[in-house]
């Protein structure tokens, strides 16, 4: 029993001495990488998230028009 207690105490001291970093330090003054391409809500260009989280196409109507039901058609403003 003494050997178990001594080894548990030694392991505990050893674990306290170890310095671990959960996140490495990143220099603040370094510019952001150009390898990251930002897209709208993860759906890609021309798409957006719908009410239930699925990707849907964006329908853009010209000035003087508005989108109809479900955004699939353009109707003239009156």
- Estimate percent helicity: 10-25%
Secondary-structure-based class equals: alpha+beta
Shape: elongated
Q: What is the H-and-E element order?
A: HEEEE
Report the major sheet.
2 strands, antiparallel
Low-confidence stretches: none
Quick structural gist:
The chain is an alpha+beta fold and 78 residues long.
Describe this structure in words.
The structure is a single chain. The protein is α+β, with helices and mostly antiparallel strands. It has a domain at 37-78. It has one helix and four strands; from the N terminus they run αββββ. The chain has one helix spanning 2-17, and strands at residues 47-49, 55-57, 65-67, 74-76. The strands form two sheets. The protein has a two-stranded antiparallel ribbon. Strands 3-4 form a two-stranded antiparallel ribbon. Strand 3 and strand 4 (74-76) form a beta hairpin. The longest helix has 16 residues, at 2-17. It is elongated. The N and C termini lie far apart (90 Å). The mean pLDDT is 75.
């Amino acid at each position: 029993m003494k050997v178990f207690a001594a080894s548990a105490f030694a392991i505990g001291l050893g674990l306290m001495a170890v310095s671990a970093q959960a996140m490495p330090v990143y220099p603040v003054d370094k510019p952001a990488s150009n390898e990251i391409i930002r897209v709208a809500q993860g759906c890609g260009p021309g798409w957006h998230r719908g009410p239930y989280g699925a990707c849907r196409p964006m329908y853009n109507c010209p000035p003087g028009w508005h989108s109809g039901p479900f955004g699939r058609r353009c109707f003239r403003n009156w």
